[in-house]
Amino acid sequence: METYKFKTNINCGNCVRAVTPHLNKLEGVQEWKVDTENPDKVLEVKADAADAQTIKSTVEKAGFQAEQL
Asked: Under a CB-based contact definition with an 8 Å cutoff, are residues 17 and 68 in contact?
C-alpha cells in the first residue's frame, strides 16, 4: 500500500464534505484524511491501486487544488 501526500486548498469542514464523495468512490483508496490545521492543508491518501495522478485529478475534479509533496 502506498501513502501519498498532497498540498491542497481544502481548508474547512465544508470543503472536506465536498471532496468526500469523490475520494470515497475512487477505486483503490483505502483511507484518506485532510489536516486542515496544517498551513499546507495536507491531504494524506493510503491507496493500494490508485496512483498519485489519479488522486490529484479526482481532487481537482471536485474543485480543489492538489500538489503532490
From this structure: no
